[in-house]
Amino acid sequence: MKEINYLEAIKEALYEEMVRDQSVLILGEDVGVYGGAFRVTEGFYEKFGEWRVLDTPLSESGFTGAAIGASLVGMRPVVEMQFADFISCAFDQLVNVAAKNHYRWGAATPIVVRAPYGGNIHGGAFHSQCIEGFFFNVPGLKIVAPSTAYDAKGLLKASIRDNDPVIYCEHKYLYRRIKDPVPEEDYVVPIGKARVAMEGRDVSVITYGAMVHTAIEAAQMLKDKKISCEIIDLRTILPLDKKSIFTTVQKTNKVVVVHEQTKTGGVGAEISALINEYCFEYLDGPVIRVAAPDTPVPFSAPMEEAFIPKASDIVSAVEKLVRY
Amino acid sequence: MMDIQRDDLLQMYYYLKLTRKFEERITSLYHQGRILGGAWTSNGTEAVSVGYAFALEKNDIAASYFRDMGAFIIRGISVKRIMAQYLGKKTGVSGGKEGNVHIGDLNYGVFGFPSHLADNYPVGAGAALAFKIRGEKRVVAACTGDGGTSRGDFHEAMNFASVRKLPIVFFCNNNQYAYSTPLHLQMAVKNIADRALAYGMPNKIVDGNNVVDVYTAAKEAYEFARNGGGPTFIECKTMRMHGHSEHDSAKYVPRELLEEWRKKDPITNMETYLRENNIVKKEELDSIDTRIKNEIDEAEEFAETSPYPSPEDALEDVYATPVEE
Known about the structure:
The structure holds 2 protein chains of 2 kinds.
Chain A: E1 2-5, H1 6-20, E2 24-28, H2 44-48, E3 53-55, H3 60-72, E4 76-80, H4 91-105, E5 112-117, H5 132-135, E6 142-144, H6 149-161, E7 166-171, E8 179-182, E9 195-198, E10 203-207, H7 211-224, E11 229-233, E12 236-238, H8 242-252, E13 255-262, H9 267-278, E14 288-292, H10 301-307, H11 311-322
Parallel strand pairs in A: 2-3, 2-4, 4-5, 5-7, 6-7, 10-11, 10-13, 13-14
Antiparallel strand pairs in A: 1-8, 6-12, 9-11
Chain B: H1 6-31, H2 46-54, E1 61-63, H3 69-75, H4 79-86, E2 110-111, H5 120-134, E3 140-145, H6 152-163, E4 168-174, E5 177-178, E6 181-182, H7 183-186, H8 194-197, E7 203-207, H9 211-226, E8 232-237, H10 255-262, H11 266-276, H12 282-305
Parallel strand pairs in B: 1-2, 1-3, 3-4, 4-8, 7-8
Antiparallel strand pairs in B: 5-6
């Protein structure tokens, strides 16, 4: 095992997959000569050349469509959205072409769209959004969102080897802020499987992405108050690992769902609905959502700070639930 | 004219006529209420897809659009399966998951058509990119209508393909109307081919009602692309003789315009050409016509007697690799 950060994990997964499989290629803005806006593909151009690391024109729909076409004839393209926010320009290709190819005419579309998402970086409304909700309602897509370096590497490898279109949500805030041990040898983290990030008995906190770390921080604070939290890191958002969700509900009977995405119609709404529909008799209180307010991501530091859920928000929600 | 073998000319005639007659049968079934949903035909513009598809090689790709029935058939997708798709049957190309002209089958190198026009332009460019990367001498034919050339995907694909000199030929079936909107309300350029200039792409305008012209231009552009020359844009000027789909009487099209184009019918033209140049005898054409009628009768019979899919089938195939629950 060696310790690497979240960004290095993404980079290693990409690099190793490109060495392992000639059909893997990268397309995106500034991914080649420059090495990517966040330097994820630094050195790739020199190693793999301009035909496997393609600097594209500014045209998200065009190069996402091209990735889809290449995948239909045997390639495994990885598209980099410079910022996840720009994925809106490729919405049609992802939602109407990639997601429906297999259902409509039996053609597998093995593409990965890397989406550097999330706030806390003072990026404003167009460089901070959580985009998973835009695609959560689209059958045929898969969405993953790792919270650790280990999962970032293993999930990206699994996504590249998967035969369906995968939106890979990598949280920008985590890039160089977290580090954890990663095996030297090849491994994958299976798509569709959540993990228990922390065992506990009183309240379940179901979350993903950067919020896993916020939830852990909250759990430490609650520990001092003798409240034990179980943290579920979803890892895959679409399709949801219902089994893991139901298992934790049946264990603690109290659930807080946390995400950085805005509240209305978010992933948390679906989780809450699932629990209500299938685990109602196990509940000792309402499922509470801790999420960003329904506004665009604000710019100014105090406003953005208030926008993004904090450990203290989770603590309040858990305490409220414990009182039931 | 290019030196084209007699057999090839007869084949193109056969495909033109089969496309016309097959779509006429679909139209007739539509008016009898026997097909599901709508019916979109290439009536009057058949020479475009017949010409470009007939010039392709077996391993090439057709990234087609909805007025490309000729291409679907030439690539090898049987009229039986297409008719079954129109009727929503399990034996249809998509097993009932898709309807009418949404034909796609990788076994025959045909990319499925999304209704969002020109979506297949970037998708086609991606396949061409793969061929270029792997050093394969394969090409892609992508097609859209005049309407599709105003969408962003058209421009993004044209630009990308030209920058990377990809082995793709972009066709435009310029049939004068995007549903009811005439060309002059769609664009301010005189020719759609002018749009290629902005991307530094070679372009050509051909008579879209002359299958030999379309075929010849396509063949040349494919060879250019196969040899590393990059993409070409080919505007095929033609006229949609029916409405946007069969529910549409196309009252917005001036009758004189239709009359003018009726004289240039691509199938009658081809027939006259074959006869006047003594390439074919009347009996031979008659026997082709008989063969076509039989094929269409068989397709209708096959589709009518085929089973419907079951409701549960609708839950299958969302993913290529389903996630274990």
